[in-house]
Structures are given as structure tokens and as C-alpha cells.
Design a protein that fits this description.
By secondary structure, the protein is α+β, with helices and mostly antiparallel strands. The chain is built from 6 helices and 6 strands, in the order αααββαβαββαβ. Strands 1-2-5-3-4-6 form a 6-stranded mixed β-sheet, with helices on one face.
């Protein structure tokens, strides 16, 4: 990449920083109790700007051939706190809390690219089960110390992009013919999303465990 192109792309990223800074300052002075909706809009704007900046910097690194893409994505996955675990008939993936749907693909790659890299690395060391008829369970976990206003509608979250990424590794197909979807909201020590994929026969026992733990706030 020539110096002029590099400088131009860096300038574009630099232009986004004051906008992010101003939005964060606005969040600081917004009364969340009185202007909860305004705070929500500001927080989403800040998160999306931050994701755009992160994706732009990644693309710059790729274009300049500074770091190999798989290595960078594995590092990003560590920052995201992506954790994959599996048993004979269950796969569990811990992710950051999902954001509302967006139209620009550049934003969805913020999470799907490192997730894909994590699954690629994991399957090099482990043999994951392959599901034909399964249930996909999204456990949306919210920090119990923060406002419950932050809890969002299930149909407004970026779940499809996540399922599309995971399906290529462990599912025959993610259509309604082969899988059911289940969502539940929980309160925990931090914000995150836990995606659990299991055989349909395993779902009743999994659901019963949630009920016994008093975590069930669901939409099936």
C-alpha cells in the first residue's frame, strides 16, 4: 500500500474519533432515568462508531499485509472473550452481548469474523458434533448491576449472522426444517450471549435445568 493511500485511510479513521468522543460525552451528561430513550440511542451510536473504527483498522492491517488475517482474528476473539466448549451432543459458544440489527455488513463483521476464526482454530484441535435436527438456544445475559432498560426484543438482535457463521461448522442446515430457535434472558455478572446448540432430544433436560435454576424468562 502506497503512503498516500495509507494516509487517506488513516485520516478517515481519525475523523470518526471526535464523533465517538462527543457521543460518549453526551452519554455522561444524559439522565438515564428521565431520558432513557435518548441514552439508548446515544449508546447504540457510540457502539456502532467504535465497531466501525475497529473494522476499518482491521481492514487497514489486512490491506497493508502487516499481520496475517487468521492471527489477527484469533487475537480479536480473545479480546471479545469468545469461548467454545462442547460435549458429545452439545456445543456452547460464549460471545459478547449482541447488538440490534444493522444494515451495513461492515458492522456485522465486527463479531462474525473473529467468531469464524475461533471456530476454525477450535476445529483444528477438536471434533465438533454435526447436527441435523437441533435446537439453537440464545441465552442473552445482562449485567445485573445495570439498568433493565437495556434488555432488547429478541427479534431486533443480530442473531441470524451468528447462526449463519456457526451453521457452516456444525449444522446440516439452519432452516426451520432442521432446527428450532429458543431465546431466554438472564441476569449475570456481565453482559454476554451464550449460544447453545443441541440435539432436539437434549432440549427438554436443558430447559428443565434453567427452570430449576430460576433463570427462565423465555420466548419459544
Amino acid at each position: 500500500m502506497d503512503r498516500s493511500t495509507l494516509s487517506t485511510r488513516l485520516s478517515r479513521i481519525e475523523e470518526e474519533l471526535p464523533k465517538l468522543f462527543n457521543t460518549i460525552n453526551a452519554m455522561k451528561i444524559t439522565n438515564t432515568g428521565t431520558y432513557g430513550k435518548n441514552y439508548e440511542e446515544l449508546s447504540l451510536d457510540a457502539a456502532q462508531r467504535a465497531e466501525k473504527i475497529a473494522c476499518s483498522l482491521r481492514n487497514l492491517i489486512f490491506a497493508a499485509n502487516l499481520v496475517e488475517r487468521p492471527l489477527l482474528m484469533e487475537k480479536v476473539a480473545e479480546v471479545h472473550g469468545i469461548v467454545i466448549e462442547h460435549t458429545e451432543n452439545t456445543v456452547s459458544i460464549t460471545l459478547p452481548g449482541l447488538m440490534p440489527k444493522r444494515t451495513k455488513r461492515v458492522n456485522t463483521t465486527f463479531l462474525t469474523d473473529p467468531l469464524h476464526a475461533s471456530l476454525t482454530a477450535y476445529t483444528k484441535e477438536q471434533v465438533l458434533p454435526r447436527f441435523r435436527d437441533c435446537v439453537i438456544c440464545f441465552s442473552h445475559i445482562f449485567d445485573r448491576k445495570l439498568s433493565s432498560r437495556r434488555i432488547r426484543d429478541y427479534d431486533n438482535l443480530e442473531c441470524k449472522q451468528i447462526v449463519d457463521t456457526v451453521a457452516s461448522f456444525i449444522m446440516t442446515d439452519d432452516s426451520g426444517l432442521f432446527c428450532d430457535a429458543y431465546h431466554t434472558t438472564e441476569f449475570g455478572s456481565r453482559d454476554c450471549t451464550v449460544l447453545t446448540i443441541m440435539e432436539k432430544t437434549a432440549f427438554p433436560a436443558w430447559l428443565k435445568t434453567l427452570e430449576e435454576q430460576g433463570k427462565l424468562m423465555s420466548d419459544f
